[in-house]
Input
Amino acid sequence: MTSQAVKVGTLTLRNPVLTASGCFGYGLEYDDFYDVATLGGICSKGLSLHPRLGNPPERICETAAGMLNAIGLANVGVEAFCTEKLPTLRRRGVTVIANIFASSVEDFVTIAERLNREAGVAAIELNVSCPNVQEGGIEFGKDPRMCARVTGAVRRATALPIWVKMSPEAGDIAAVARACEEAGADAVTAINTIRGLSIDTDRMRARLANCTGGLSGPALRPIALRIVWELAGKISIPIIGIGGIFTAKDAVEFLLAGATAVQVGTANFSDPCAAKKIADGVRVYCESRGLSAQDLVGRARP
Ligand SMILES: Cc1cc2nc3c(=O)[nH]c(=O)nc-3n(C[C@H](O)[C@H](O)[C@H](O)COP(=O)(O)O)c2cc1C
Output
């Protein structure tokens, strides 16, 4: 048996496979399928200061090699998460990464402070792919300076590990990642969705009520892998790879490129057991080669 544990900064994960935010509910929904505590961790649906209903339907549609979503960040809000979801997750021993988003630095801090009062949160993941209303609606994640400001403010508000989720739409992702590292991030997650569009030619209108949506799934994978590869050469904090991971081989590619762990998103919609199967497959890959999961990290790099 080779070890599947990986270290993301100060946090040790049982294995390198987690589920991605927005693609696994709050974890408990998957209870009937398998023991979610066997995963490396789960990332909660993005949590805001107050509950949100999100966008009207249609909110998702299938595309050639993935899907588009414009859910509009529907969620129960941080308070209901802490009182209604977290206690059960904690009891079951699930490693919980709380994904959070806000449209101001102050709200990011308030959410982080609320989570900081709870036991059972292993790390906070900042979804910075949302507009900063105080600065003309530019996405935090597109600007190194704004991303550093939100990371630094959350850093001062909590001792919990902070992962910052990179937007692939930033002009210079490495500059954003470096700014987050300098501001005290413990890891970066790469990547979030890329905006896309699909039109229904019978109805002659966009398939999604929001018109555009975030593209996820296999179409994203080579782009995400390239970004992980490039970031691994430019930052020294761990990288969590994400984008179109559907098989154990896909996950291994990300680890070999330099990711310390991976997240599985869209694959959960076609197979609710995808993340568990991927974690089992990574273990088999390691055991057949006498390597630990940590041994794989960056092994394909020159
Ligand atoms: C339906 C849906 C909802 C999502 N919601 C969130 C969210 O709330 N917060 C976040 O940071 N990312 C969210 N994402 C992005 C995913 O976590 C992930 O970064 C992206 O889908 C790429 O990974 P994948 O190809 O494995 O799905 C969402 C993605 C999908 C498909």
Summary: The mean pLDDT is 97. The first helix runs from residue 78 to 91.
